[in-house]
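Milestone M4 deliverable, item 7.
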Amino acid sequence: IKKCFNKNFSIYYQNIEKFFKTNYNSIISELFYFKYNSRITCHNCGFISNNIKFTSLLEISLEEIKKIKKKNNNRNIAIKDFFEYYQKPTHLLITCNKCGKKDCMDNSNIILEGPKILIIKTNKGKNDKFDIKFDFEENINLKDFILYKKNEYNYELIGIVINMEKDKFISYCK
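Output delivered:
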C-alpha cells in the first residue's frame, strides 16, 4: 500500500491530521472514526485524486456481500473477506477532469487509521432478504489492512445486531 503514496501525499496527510484534530476533536471521533483515502485514478492519463475521508462506520451492501460470496465459491464470509473487498479497486463510469476521457477511472479505498472501537454495518435494500451466513471471528486483527499502524488494531467481537425487517432487530451480545 505504501508504494502508492509519495512525499506530496505525506504532506497532504499531515495537513488532514491537523484538520481532523481541529474539527473532530471529541471522544466519539477518537473512539469510533476511521480515516481512509478514496483514491481515484485515470488509466488513460495517469491523473490521481486523493480524498481523505472520516467515517465512524464501514458500510457494505447486501449486493456487495453476495459478490464476495460468489467470488469465494459460496463459502461463508469472514471479516477478512469484507476488508479485502473494501480495498479492491472499483471501476467508475465518470469522466476524467484532466484528459476528458470517459469510463477510464478506478476508485480504491485505503484505510489510513482504524478506530479504537470497530463498527461494521451491512446495508440491505428494501426488498432484500438477509440470507447469508457470516463467520464472525471472536478476535479480529486488521493490521494488514491499515496503512499507518498507530495501534495493533486487534478487536474483540462483543456484539452483533441483525435487522430482520423494518423496525425489528435481534442483538447478540457477549
